[in-house]
Amino acid sequence: MIIMGVMKNHITFLLLATTVLAVGPALAWEAVKVSSVEHSTFYRSGSSTKGKAGLNGGDYSDSLFNGTFTDYRWQNTSGAYLVVDLDDTFPNGCYVTEVKTGHKGGKAYSLYSSVDGSKWDTIAEQITAAGERTFTIEKIVKKVKVVWDQADWSQQTLAEIEVWGVDPSELGCVHPEEYVTEWEAIPASANCTEYGIDQRQCTKCGEFFYRESLSALPLGHEYETVLVKHGTSLEYGNGTNVCKRCGDAIVFDNPIDLATLGGAYNEGLVQFTDVTVSSIWRPQDGAGGAGHLVDGKWQTGYNAGWMAGSLSHDAEFAQFAFKNAIDLTAVDISVHNHDQVVEFYSVEGGEEVLVGEVAFEKDTAADALDYQRKRVELRGVSLSTLRIRVQDFVGVELWGKKIISICECHPYGTVAGAGKSAAVRTRVIIE
């Protein structure tokens, strides 16, 4: 049972009844945002560009410092980095309390801090989790660096970088590193949507510090089905998926486009629907990744849909994993205009069971589009994982290589038991 919330060093977190913490004395100072586009420098291939100049194939502007954590920006140069320099404002260094980032997720980035730029201390490395993150620093530095470890041509990545701090002269204790204990996890501090919490202490003054955990991910919701009305062969029923831990509810009055309840899987991202794929055409830059299966672009084109790494029916698949069993009612799908068969499988315990398929034949009409879109209705199909395979007899050719590609795919479903049941034929003899 949750009994209290604690605000400490700009991190809000929930403590369980079994957790007891000593809280230090009230702070006489307040950290402020000390980062800005005017005090940042972008570096690429040994050169530097200041202010609002463009990145290679992407963009870098004051949007990274505008306080909005979801206006993601393009960056396709691996190893490029951005340095926030606090020297001009704090010639004796700034006591940095935390760094906040907003990131699309999937592609790794790293954070570092330095006193003079000659030696960099790790804040966090190879971060792939999506969303707004807070990284606790609590020491005097002059520079903070964010490195794009992996670039991406297919989606925007970083949205925001904020550095928060205070002039050391305002502090009674600057918490020298030799007096600060190692970070340790607070047991059971993660909940459905929030990361766990770590703590450490300055033994010189007794102050406790807390940070969002780098390893204890949100638990995610644990849904159970509340069926209100059973489906029949003629009409859908209805019901709700309710989280047993926190009460989060998804109401299914009618079948829902399940793609709207999630998207591409990213570590730390809590959603009902996680989309993954077996491989992608250009893994080095993310081209044709899982997110393009559900981005609303039904036509063909570069990054319009999933582009697999090969033409193999057995090796390649797209997958929709749901946080609770659902009744699959339909699949709306778009593919390139040529001969192929799309197969739908239920996956339970590692076993695939074919639950439906749809065949496409090339439309040779003069006004035919270069893609075809079909909606497949399903009955009596209950599953928690939908896997899609393609028997492609032609393939999509990209740079001399033939591959499988699905332009767009949206499964529809309702709570288990509320889908239309399979029609049963009954023979009646009247004498």
Features:
globular, 6-stranded antiparallel β-sheet, Jelly Rolls, 10-stranded mixed β-sheet, 431 residues
Question: Could you write a compact summary of the structure shown?
Answer:
With 431 residues, the chain is an all-beta fold.
Percentage of β-strand residues: 35-45%
What is the CATH topology descriptor of the largest domain?
A: Jelly Rolls
CATH architecture classification name of the largest domain: Sandwich
Uncertain stretches of 5 or more adjacent residues: 1-26, 51-58
Could you characterize what this model shows?
The structure is a single chain. The chain has no helices and 30 strands. It is mainly beta and 431 residues long. It folds into 2 domains: 2-212, Jelly Rolls (Sandwich); 223-415, Jelly Rolls. The strands form 7 sheets. Strands 19, 20, 21, 22, 23, 24, 25, 26, 27 and 30 form a 10-stranded mixed beta sheet that branches. The protein is globular, with a radius of gyration of 26 Å. The termini are far apart. Residues 1-26 and 51-58 have low confidence and may be disordered.
